[in-house]
Amino acid sequence: MAIRYLVRYSVEQHDKNGFLKAPIWLWLGWILLAKAWLVFIGAGASRESGAKILSIVYPDQTTLYVGLIMGLPSIIFMWLIGLRNVERHWINTIVSWGRNITLATVCAQLALTLYHVHLEHGAFNWANGVVLMLLLWFAIYLIKSRSVRDSLRIPTLH
What we know:
Number of helices: 9
Radius of gyration: 18 Å
Helix content: over 70%
């Protein structure tokens, strides 16, 4: 099994510590899950229209706070995946939970987006439609992708 793992991925796909790098689609999905943080930082950067931006994207203020909380696991995984090291067993263990925690976060984000649709009384909104489509795609990607499983796995060294 270890030999198949080595043959499947090239040397360039590993980081300096020998861990398989996370695929770009996983990084983009994590950024999607942390979108509340991006909106919050963008609104803070534009001081005059910041409150207006937040009210457009998050009509209910509590959904912004919930979105910020739900974006934390993605931010933590983006930070910890770069800190993986052979000696840091606790970081490697936390990162190995990444797929399941990210999948749970995707489900929670789907529920939050459906709540946004409910707040708009079912009226079509491009932002909600695109976010729902991307979240569904990301959930399918997390479930099906072997590279995501392998990149978040703790490698067994023989």
